[in-house]
Amino acid sequence: MKVFVTGVGGQLGHDVIKELWSRGHQCVGSDLAPRYSGLQDSPALEAMTYVPMDITDAQAVKAVLTQAAPDAVIHCAAWTAVDAAEEPQKQALVRSINAGGTRNIANVCRDLDCKMLYLSTDYVFDGQGSQPWDPDCRDYKPLNFYGQTKLEGELAVSETLEKYFIVRIAWVFGLNGKNFIRTMVDLGRKHRSLRVVCDQIGTPTYTLDLARLLVDMVQTDRYGRYHATNEGGYISWYDFACEIFRQMGYDTQVTPVTTAEYGQSKALRPFNSRLDKSKLIRAGFEPLPTWQDALARYLEEAGFREKG
Q1: Which end of the chain, N or C, is surrounded by fewer C-beta atoms within 10 Å?
Q2: Hey, where are the domains in the chain?
Q3: Catalytic residues
């Protein structure tokens, strides 16, 4: 199987390439940079065919994908700087990437009759209440501009294609980039006490585990919308920080604060990021491991702790 992966310079795209390679699939990766500039931590990154591509350029997308002629596209590329997306001078660019770029890819996938898997987010919902969001819920009310553009990307895929997967994820962390865990480990080394938000609830997602699921998916025709995070229960960012410090052996004192008390955010954040993942099991996909286990493995793989 030949799979084209966008956004290979990011956390998820990097791990998707490694997973595809480990299963013997032919990989083509793309990003904006003229050459791959992410972590070189696997033979997969050397074996990968890398092609620079600006997804906002419809003609470039058509030329590159047509030349590659993949059986499936896993679309990981996106604008993910949530607060920066609220800046008026950047919103045209954000929309051109998350919505326009996604539509460009979907149009070519339609013409090539290949599968497309689009990574989305819980931010397409309003983040209110306490019930987990069902993947087939259509009650879309994004709280911020990032969420709105990711929803527009979803609609571009579902309105253009029949052979598609839309996978919503949340609280992502991986080896190839910045994330909450890296931030907490760094802050925990420098400070004896920290304030962390306690009223935003969700579940972390380790890109290494997610990549395995995504590759499982594109090998099937079980199309539709899915939610995917690690198992282990719903937690707050405060709970996550406490477990990070526990596993690191830090004695950093963590004080829980509300979103309002914490402040310092341009974009509104969802209070309820609980995602119902039961559809994965009904479709025959294997759930991800617990987030506690994923955290332990990440801390070792990232070199924060010695491997046991």
Answers
A1: C
A2: 2-176+204-230+274-289
A3: 146
Which CA distances in Å does 293 have to 5, 61, 136, 185?
27, 38, 28, 17
Give, as one character, the DSSP assignment of residue 284: T
61-66: long-range contacts, CB 8 A cutoff, minimum separation 24: 61/101, 61/104, 61/105, 61/108, 62/104, 62/107, 62/108, 62/111, 64/30, 65/4, 65/105, 65/108, 65/109, 65/112, 66/108, 66/111, 66/112
Q: How far apart are CA 288 and CA 205, in angstroms?
A: 9
CATH code of domain 2-176+204-230+274-289: 3.40.50.720
pTM higher than 0.85: yes
Q: 144-179: per-residue pLDDT in tens?
A: 999 999 999 999 999 999 999 999 999 999 999 899
